[in-house]
Amino acid sequence: MRAVLLLVASLSLAGCASPQWTRIEAGAAPLSTARAKCRPAKQPDEVMVEAEERLAAWDRCMEGQGWARPETLLARKG
User: How far is the C-alpha of 64 from the C-alpha of 75, rounded, in Å?
Assistant: First the structure.
């Protein structure tokens, strides 16, 4: 189970299983530019906690570029 979740996290960071993103700032850079700025350097497989932290860092970076996942926006409202 742990290996599967790590694989999903790795694919998400690589853009293979990219979620939908919502523009949250009018002047946000194009999505491709934001992804390029936020994409982490390739690293060897890490333990699950580190993978989750990398996904959280990805989300924070994308929000800084003016993009957010719809489920993140809904969670804040709820």
Answer: 18
Task: Please give the full DSSP string across 13-69, using - where no structure is assigned.
Answer: HHTTTPPP-EE-STTPPPHHHHHHHHPPPP-----HHHHHHHHHHHHHHHHHTTEE-
Q: Classify 77 as helix, strand or coil.
A: helix
Question: Which residues 6+ apart lie within 8 Å of 40 measured at CB?
Answer: 13, 54, 57, 58
Point out which residues pair with 73 in neighbouring strands: none
The residue among 70, 7, 23, 62 whose CA lies nearest residue 39 is 62
Distance CA 63, CA 49 (A): 21
* Per-residue pLDDT in tens (0 to 9) along the chain, 78 residues: 444 444 444 444 444 445 688 888 888 889 898 888 887 665 555 555 677 788 888 888 999 999 998 888 888 776
